[in-house]
Amino acid sequence: MEKYISALLISFYVYGFAGWVWESFICPVITGGKIKNSGFLNGPIVPIYGVGALSVSLLFSVHETYLSIFIGGAFVACVIEYFTSWAMEKLYHRRWWDYSDKAFNVNGRVCLEGFLVFGLFSVVAVKFIQPALMERILNHGMLMLVVVATSLTTLLVLDMIVTIIALAHLEERLDGFIKDVEMYAEKAFDGFESGRKNFYDVLETLKMNDKPAYKNFIKGKNLMYHRIIKAFPDLTNKKK
């Protein structure tokens, strides 16, 4: 049992890392955006992908039809994403992502596009990836799997603690950070009007035009908010 649970935990981290690679590198390349550390945590993992993939893999069997896995997996993943969005907004009083501009969205938290992508990924995970991944992981000895799973879990917990502490009182601190950046931009650029530009674009423009001074300005705790805003630009919008 310990070996199987450890294998499941390791597969969770594999999916979480794959999700981080997808959002940080593949999506920006496809959409023409900039490569970034896309995620709530500092480390290279997006836990919601691990939770979603593991949930779908446990709830659906490889013997089920493609259609049932597609619809069921997409529904489960959307429920997880919706609840995560709601919980994070309640906790931090900010909307972390917003699909209001997407077709067939539900309160801006989930949308049809995501449903279709989640459905496709669910089929691939249940039918192909998870069986092969578990078989490969379980080929290793129990001691090794327990050590790896425990080590990765310890790192994840530490990362979560550091991130949560750093983001304490996020709403007030983020407002202060945005105000400081806009004041800095007003000094750096003639005719700059706060609120008239996308905040992420302001950060990037400042960085490109005066890197040494900007690095000095952004150092310390501001570095965390800079990274979070790059990963979740919708945070700069007030909750409606």
TrEMBL record:
Recorded superkingdom: Bacteria
Membrane-spanning residues: 12-33, 40-60, 66-89, 110-130, 142-170
Nuclease found in the keyword field: no
Keywords of the record: Membrane, Transmembrane, Transmembrane helix
The keyword Membrane is annotated on this UniProt entry: yes
Pfam families: ABC_trans_CmpB
Classification via InterPro entries: CmpB_TMEM229 (IPR010540)
Protein name stated in the entry: Putative membrane protein
Organism: Longibaculum muris
